[in-house]
């Protein structure tokens, strides 16, 4: 039995197969419509979510399976003091696979250790968000044609943004990558990530101004300042509008640069960018359904010929 806690749980070869499957699903949806008949997905979400939870549910429904679960800790027995380990033992009796989001780093891993069904980390605190990373990678691979030899700018909250941490981890295995970290000083990328890049001799730069680096980027990955992980509201208010990508700044970018964002967006991308063909963040959310369908099939070891 396999779980997904971190994008590195899959080898590069396994990821290639997963993305090929996701591309096939996109073009042949009816063939997969009954692949998970009789199977159930549990979504155990202890933290707010729109896309991740609904795209998991849509993925399972598209596969002909069914879904159950809870969308906030208050409506689960966590509010009575039940541990994640006990909850997953129970969920293992009711479902065939579980997607879990939790504000505490490592909680889905604790669940996986006690689980009788595959557990997918759907975001754990400021740590990892592997299925968002699969979504981001499928988007880049499909729209840009490759996952190597890319200059990727990550902008915004690089300290608390789990999608950023997972994506860098995953892309660090491809050749010719170059990372540009664009953030205010207070929201810098954690040291453990820059240490990992130095060890692997992967080039990176840390800068504050977005405009200066725009002309060099193949991909610009924008992120929201993670309000819920701040200890103090004043800092959040001071930093929340530090970056606002608008049409004027997009003029500095290459004609084929792609703008990704895991969403939700707050103010960091002005709505006047939405019509730019390089803005692919809504398409990205659609890719999230295909890749989660591919992931559910893979973890349940279901093959469709
Ligand atoms: C992200 C998350 O939850 O980490 N959202 C998502 O899953 N698409 C990013 C965010 O909340 O800013």
From TrEMBL:
GO terms for molecular function: amino acid binding; aspartate carbamoyltransferase activity. It catalyses: carbamoyl phosphate + L-aspartate = N-carbamoyl-L-aspartate + phosphate + H(+). It comes from Candidatus Eisenbergiella merdigallinarum. It holds the Pfam family OTCace_N. Pathway: Pyrimidine metabolism; UMP biosynthesis via de novo pathway; (S)-dihydroorotate from bicarbonate: step 2/3. This is Aspartate carbamoyltransferase. It is an enzyme of class 2 (transferase). Signal peptide: none annotated. Heterododecamer (2C3:3R2) of six catalytic PyrB chains organized as two trimers (C3), and six regulatory PyrI chains organized as three dimers (R2). Gene3D superfamilies: Aspartate/ornithine carbamoyltransferase. Its EC number is 2.1.3.2. PROSITE patterns: CARBAMOYLTRANSFERASE (PS00097). It comes from the Bacteria. Carbamoyl phosphate binds at residues 51-52, 101, 129, 132, 263-264.
């Amino acid at each position: 039995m396999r779980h997904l806690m971190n994008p590195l749980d899959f080898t590069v070869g396994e990821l290639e197969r997963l993305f090929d499957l996701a591309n096939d699903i996109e073009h042949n949806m009816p063939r997969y419509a009954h692949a998970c008949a009789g199977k159930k997905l549990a979504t155990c979400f202890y933290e707010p979510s729109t896309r991740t939870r609904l795209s998991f549910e849509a993925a399972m429904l598209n596969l002909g399976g069914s879904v159950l679960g809870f969308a906030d800790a208050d409506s689960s027995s966590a509010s009575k003091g039940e541990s994640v380990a006990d909850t997953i033992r129970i969920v293992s009796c009711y479902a065939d696979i579980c997607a879990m989001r939790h504000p505490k780093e490592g909680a889905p891993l604790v669940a996986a250790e006690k689980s009788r069904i595959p557990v997918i980390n759907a975001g754990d605190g400021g740590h990892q968000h592997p299925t968002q990373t699969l979504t981001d990678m499928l988007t880049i691979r499909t729209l840009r044609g490759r996952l190597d030899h890319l200059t990727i700018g990550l902008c915004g909250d690089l300290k608390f943004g789990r999608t950023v941490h997972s994506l860098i981890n995953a892309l660090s295995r491809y050749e010719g990558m170059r990372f540009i970290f664009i953030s205010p000083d207070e929201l810098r990328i954690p040291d453990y990530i820059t240490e990992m890049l130095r060890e692997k001799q992967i080039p990176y730069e840390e800068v504050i101004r977005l405009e200066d680096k725009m002309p060099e980027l193949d991909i610009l990955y924008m992120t929201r300042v993670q309000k819920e992980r701040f200890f103090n509201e004043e800092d959040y208010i001071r930093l929340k509008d530090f970056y606002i990508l608008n049409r004027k700044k997009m003029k500095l970018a290459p004609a084929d640069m792609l703008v990704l964002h895991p969403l939700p967006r707050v103010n960091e991308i002005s709505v006047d960018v939405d019509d730019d063909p390089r803005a692919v963040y809504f398409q990205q959310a659609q890719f999230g359904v295909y890749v989660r369908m591919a992931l559910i099939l893979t973890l349940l070891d279901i093959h469709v010929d």
